[in-house]
Amino acid sequence: MIWAQTANFVLGLLASLVGWLAIALLLTPRLKVSRLNRIQQDRIRHPSGYRYRVKLINRSRYFAVGDLNLHARLVIPGLDKARPDARTSIYLPVGTDTPFPVLSRRSKREPDGEWERVYTINYLDMVGNGVSRLSPEIQDQLESRTITLHELLQIYPGSFIRFAVAGTHGRSGVRRTYITKFDIFTITEGEFQSGSIGLKSGPTTEASK
């Protein structure tokens, strides 16, 4: 009797493990998030001289990922003088007002398909109460759009970008959130390589996305 109960318990445990693995590997969104990347821009259109971007890839060859929700915040420790140990979080818009919410399934037939997409971190359009705590000089540079994200992160030591993307599996409806932290030491520079979150080799050119 004890052996039978033990065997049933082990079988039940194995069945739960198999079910969990099936959900984790097959029925959950499988996204790949690049490092924060910057690319040089025409200073006439972009006075700061750079655009900062994140690339997302749907790793699944069978299912799309929908209902994408992208969120970014600049986190600065010690900005609130009344609470020097606290962190101030400032919202940074990502992409356009309504970023396209779907990544199609990955396909070798479409090397530049809709399963990968690049989104711009619009740090110059940051909003929230924390903006008023920035120095007047920084606020002026934000208004004139001349400050780079590198300079912001250098001025406030220990600051970083917290980036989150959530998506829904195209078949199961399971939702998953990926959270990434970017600091000044992890920012890459160059143009993204098609089909990868890596960068192209050679001279930097303006991205087409």
Keywords:
9 strands; 3 helices; disordered C terminus; five-stranded mixed beta sheet; single chain; globular; four-stranded antiparallel beta sheet; 209 residues; 19% helix; alpha+beta
Short summary:
Strands 1, 2, 3, 6 and 9 form a five-stranded mixed sheet that branches. The protein has a four-stranded antiparallel sheet with strand order 5-4-7-8, with no helix packed on it. With about 210 residues, the protein is an alpha+beta fold.
Range of helix content: 10-25%
- The average pLDDT is 84
Instruction: List low-pLDDT spans.
Output: 202-209
Question: Total strand count, please?
Answer: 9
* Structural class by secondary-structure content: alpha+beta
Rg (CA only): 21 Å
Overall body shape: globular
The number of distinct helices, counting runs of at least 4 residues, comes to 3
Can you tell me about this structure?
The protein is of the alpha+beta class. 19% of the residues lie in helices and 29% in strands. It has helices at residues 2-25, 136-144, 149-155; strands spanning 31-33, 37-40, 50-58, 65-77, 87-92, 116-120, 160-169, 175-182, 188-189. The strands form 2 sheets. Strands 1, 2, 3, 6 and 9 form a 5-stranded mixed β-sheet that branches. A 4-stranded antiparallel β-sheet has the order 5-4-7-8, with no helix packed on it. A hairpin with a 5-residue loop joins strand 7 and strand 8. The model is unreliable at 202-209 (pLDDT under 50).
